Amino acid sequence: MPYLAKILLYPIKSLDGVEVEQAKVLASGALEYDREFAIINKQGKFVNGKSNEKIHLLRAFYASSFGTSQFGISDRTISLQIPSQKSQQVFHLDKERQALAATLSDFFGFAVMLEQNSLMGFPDDRNSPGPTVISTASLIEVASWFPGSSVDEIRRRMRANIEIGGVEPFWEDRLFSEQGDLLSFQIGNVCFFGVNPCQRCIVPTRNPNSGEAYPNFQKIFVQKRQATLPSWVSSSHFNHFYRLSVNTRLSTSEAGKTLQIGDKIEILPSKS
């Protein structure tokens, strides 16, 4: 039986994520606290892994005062480890945002600020701002394509929000239909629309700790993904095979509902 195995939130877009036990759905369909903040330069452009590989050198940690690692429940702090500095710097995301921006500006060598969007966050796909979905088995399979890579490293390269356990590799490809159609599925009591397989960018090609590119990562990925694509997959979305995980949307009726580790996952019957 497919079940919700992991929930990962990324409070600051492009920085490290935090694993949580539960997450609340916003009216936009996004998960509360996910990509709530983004690093922006003076031109209003994102400073992220696509545009600046130096960001991979930063380490971010989030934990509540109760030590539960449930970001946002009681603390709202980030501990930032900057290369060449021995100790972590701790900032409150609401009260010390300017100080955090100044520290990041020093690190990047140009002025940046932290922008906040508590309603939807800053998803890559604003038309499908729901959480991205992948299976643990898919991460294990993809890790096997790249000698020297661990499952956790591939997880950090792909940066999905929801991880499904109890299924075979690429089971999540069942969660979308042909182009123009939406497939309905349910996690616990939360209803989702599966939209399409996520088109990957340059970020997965880089080591999440160093930013160093894995030789021929995209070429290897495309060859292996095509070779292992299940025969039952709705192929109209695959104009290329550099795609992994599923983009989703949620109705406003799901706002306020909570996803919980262990929730069962069910594909719902199609409706005319």
Please characterize this protein's 3D structure:
The chain has 272 residues and is α+β, with helices and mostly antiparallel strands. It folds into 2 domains: 3-12 and 123-267, no CATH class; 32-116, no CATH class. The protein contains 4 helices and 15 strands. The strands form 5 sheets. A 4-stranded mixed beta sheet has the order 2-1-10-9. The longest helix is centred in the middle third of the chain and has 12 residues, at 97-108. It is globular. One of its GO terms (molecular function) is pyridoxal phosphate binding. Residues 97-268 form the MOSC domain.
* Helix amount: 10-25%
User: In what order do the strands lie side by side in the largest sheet?
Assistant: 2-1-10-9
Order of helices and strands: EEEEEEEHEEHHEEEHEEE
Radius of gyration: 18 Å
Average pLDDT works out at: 93
The separation of the N and C termini measures 26 Å
Strand content: 25-35%
Major beta-sheet overview: 4 strands, mixed
Low-confidence stretches: 65-73
Secondary structure tally, helices: 4
Structural class: alpha+beta
Shape: globular
Tell me the total number of β-strands: 15
Give the tally of structural domains. Answer: 2
Provide a compact summary of the structure.
It comes from Dendronalium phyllosphericum CENA369. This protein is of the alpha+beta class.
